[in-house]
Amino acid sequence: MHRTARLLLGLTTAAALGLGLPATAASASAATASTVSAVRAAETWEWGPTASSDRGGWAGGVVRSSGTGLRIHGDLYDAAGARTCSWLKIKWLSDRGRWHTKTFRNCSQSRILSFRVNAGYMLTASAKVCRGTSTRITGRCSGWEGVWSQGG
Fold first, then answer.
1. Three-state secondary structure along 79-128?
2. Which SS3 state, helix, strand or coil, does residue 21 take?
3. Residues of the chain above pLDDT 90, percent
4. Is omega for the bond preceding 49 within 30 degrees of 0, making it cis?
5. Which of 74, 21, 20, 23 is nearest to 44 (CA)?
6. Closest by alpha carbon to 87, among 48, 133, 124, 55?
7. How far apart are CA 100 and CA 84, in angstroms?
8. Which residues neighbour 71 within 8 Å (Cβ) at sequence distance 6 or greater?
9. Which among 19, 25, 126, 134 could bridge 144 via Cys, Cβ 3.0 to 4.6 Å?
10. What is the pLDDT of residue 24?
């Protein structure tokens, strides 16, 4: 009799835990999904649009965190006349105190240039959009506009 009671008690406990497990897993899954979406939203910062002084070129995008630091993604547009190009210059200060610069050029009025910069662990980043030829920046630049800064 004692052995039957123990077996019955074990089956009852297992059934109770089994019935409660899916409800607990579902609520834990919903909590995890909302936490993940909140973290993803917190890991993306938008910037731009930044336009050249003649409004012939402009750029904008996002900064996303990754396993190796931060990445600056975006698009560079060229909307001005013939034989001109839009240039984007991005500069950032690394966590080691060194300035880095990356430059992109778009000479196509019909296509958007997508770019990506792996900035790593940085303290601040700025961008400016200029006009120029296919070989160099000639002027009509915007001022340096903040893309991202540590601490907001």
1. CCCCCCEEEEEEEEEECCCCEEEEEEEECCCCCCEEEEEEEECEEEEEEE
2. helix
3. 61
4. yes
5. 74
6. 133
7. 26
8. 63, 64, 65, 116, 117, 118, 119
9. 126
10. 43
Residue 108 has pLDDT above 60, yes or no: yes
Q: Which two tokens stand for residue 64?
A: 């996303």
Query: Which amino acid is located at 28 in the chain?
Result: A
N-to-C CA span, the chain:
70
Q: CA 21, CA 72: separation in Å to the nearest integer? A: 43
- Beta-bridged to residue 75, according to DSSP, are 60, 114
What pLDDT is stored for residue 70 in this prediction? 95
Omega before 22 within 30 of 0, i.e. cis: no
Tell me the per-residue pLDDT of 41-99, one tens digit each, with 9 for 90 and over. Answer: 448 999 999 999 999 999 999 999 998 999 999 999 998 666 789 999 999 999 999 99
- The tokens describing 84, both together, are 């001109």
* Cβ contact 64:70 at 8 Å: yes
| Structure letter (DSSP) for residue 143 | P
Structure tokens at 73: 């993604």
Taking residue 74's Cβ as centre, other Cβ atoms within 10 Å add up to 25
Residue with tokens 């060194």: 98
